[in-house]
Design goal:
Carbamate kinase; 38% helix; alpha/beta; 241 residues; 9 helices; globular
Length: 241
């Protein structure tokens, strides 16, 4: 298999990606598929970390809109990401991929605490590291956690996996058949156009630290490895395009 052009990368998976075709929770078929895609990537000489969301189980923002205390709702969402991380770890280890979970909330029975240097050491040993519980702080999305962790571990790229959307469009492609997909975007364009690639805090973090972002469809088999080979897939967001 062709080697990755990147030394280290962080993959952001939404909770919905683990839901698959189900209406709620975790679909074993989807988790098996995602583990397979990660396994292929890890065999390309790449050090790979993953941040997983929790939207298939709990959405803190939705609960807050219905009257729940926002901080409490967000902490519940962090716990949902730990459940997803455990499911992903199990799927990966079934495919003989060494995996470690690090949680921003201390949960010693199921995950290591997040320690930056230990995470980097795991990566150097060829293990996939799954970061759970977001940043450990309310009011912060898992997009922000992905950007922060990618910068902390010195990742070369942030891979934003989407579900059945193959990049960034100028409008919702599911509602507008004439929506235009961007091959490349600059950070400021993405911010100014409010394209909802990720939240503005996460995008600003990437811009300030010159971390390139690739937005792609994880459910198009082989797309992840093609990106790692350097092929132009999805939408790249960077300082200059």
């Amino acid at each position: 298999m062709t080697k990755s052009i990147y030394r280290r990368a962080l993959l952001k998976l939404s909770g919905e990606s683990l839901k698959g075709n189900a209406s709620f929770g975790i679909d074993p078929t989807a988790s098996k598929y995602l583990a397979g895609q990660i396994k292929e990537a890890s065999h390309m000489g790449l050090e790979l970390a993953v941040v997983v969301g929790g939207g298939n189980i709990w959405r803190g923002m939705d609960a807050a809109k219905q009257g729940m205390d926002r901080a409490t709702a967000d902490y519940a969402g962090m716990l949902a990401t730990v459940i997803n991380a455990l499911a992903l770890q199990d799927a990966l280890e079934r495919q003989e991929v060494m995996t470690r979970i690090q949680s921003a909330l201390q949960m010693q029975a199921v995950a290591e605490p997040y320690i930056r240097r230990r995470a980097i050491r795991h990566l150097e040993k060829g293990r996939v590291v799954v970061f759970a519980a977001g940043t450990g702080n309310p009011y912060m999305t898992t997009d922000t956690a992905a950007a922060l962790r990618a910068i902390e571990i010195g990742a070369d790229v942030l891979l934003m996996a989407k579900n059945n959307v193959d990049g960034v469009y100028d409008s919702d492609p599911h509602k507008n058949s004439h929506a235009k997909r961007f091959d490349k975007l600059e950070y400021l364009d993405a911010l100014n156009r409010r394209l909802e690639v990720m939240d503005s805090t996460a995008l600003s973090l990437c811009m300030d630290n010159r971390l390139p972002i690739v937005v792609f469809d994880i459910f198009h088999a082989g797309t992840l490895t093609r990106i790692l080979q350097g092929q132009a897939v999805g939408t790249t967001i960077a300082e200059r395009v």
